[in-house]
Amino acid sequence: MKTIVVSNRKGGSAKTTTAVNLACELAKYGSVLLIDFDTQAHASIGVGAEGSRDNGVHSIFLGKTLSETFIPTVHEQLTLAPAQEFFDVYEYGDLRGVLKNRFRREMIEGFFDYCIIDTPPTFDALLKNSLEVADAVVIPFVPHHLGTVAVGQMVRAIYQNALQIGRDIAEVGILPVMYNPHIPEHRDALEKVKTQFGEEKLFLPIGVDIRLAKQFESASPVVLGEGRSKGLEDYRRFTQQLLERLG
Ligand SMILES: Nc1ncnc2c1ncn2[C@@H]1O[C@H](COP(=O)(O)OP(=O)(O)OP(=O)(O)O)[C@@H](O)[C@H]1O
Ligand SMILES: [Mg+2]
After folding, report:
1. Residue in 212, 218, 222, 223 to alter for ligand 1 test, most ligand atoms within 8 A of Cβ
2. pLDDT tens column, 134-166
3. Which domains does the chain have, with CATH numbers?
């Protein structure tokens, strides 16, 4: 099983849009577990479900198993561990290693080919639990100045966390989103990120496509749609690039 964490502390940078479309596209190739670690429950909504009051994924921190939170989604091969609304991570003490422990004890690796984790826009125990099981971290970012600053902060946080827990650094990939090649600031921001982190870290960008916003209303992820659309083609291309990198 390959575990891919989608993360950026910057809000509104298309983490959830990326997690949902990636999970649904990967479900065409194998079995996928989507973990919605953001109590906003937007990823859960994106795959035709909703946040749970007391049987969401966050209940693993209160002693539940991970598998008892699983529910079906819009895709047969895609299982969801929905968000638990109103879970407050700051009410609890040391929450390290819980997700990793559940993966091991419930032999999650044996049941899924891919696990995608959507994370909240914070650097907290939820993100740390995710990084402890990550094979790869995808950082979506909107290409403007603060977007590039946030990528730098995220990359540093990932490296620092890996050092702290003595774990190999997960493969890091940077995904420009809502990219418009006609806006000079977008082109400049992309160049800066390429220079700073290396071209090989960058995925080809996702353009603006209003269908990517509307999909949450209809619980119909763009990559599962028929016909051609920019968002569909961009997310399919991104998934192929990611699969090549994961080897
Ligand atoms: N490529 C795109 N084109 C048009 N709209 C987009 C695109 N990507 C995302 N959006 C819209 O932008 C908004 C932010 O996206 P999303 O919710 O995925 O970000 P997020 O990083 O998960 O946010 P949060 O930090 O709140 O978790 C949403 O309304 C989404 O529908
Ligand atoms: Mg989100």
Report:
1. 212
2. 999 999 999 999 999 999 999 999 999 999 989
3. 2-246 (3.40.50.300)
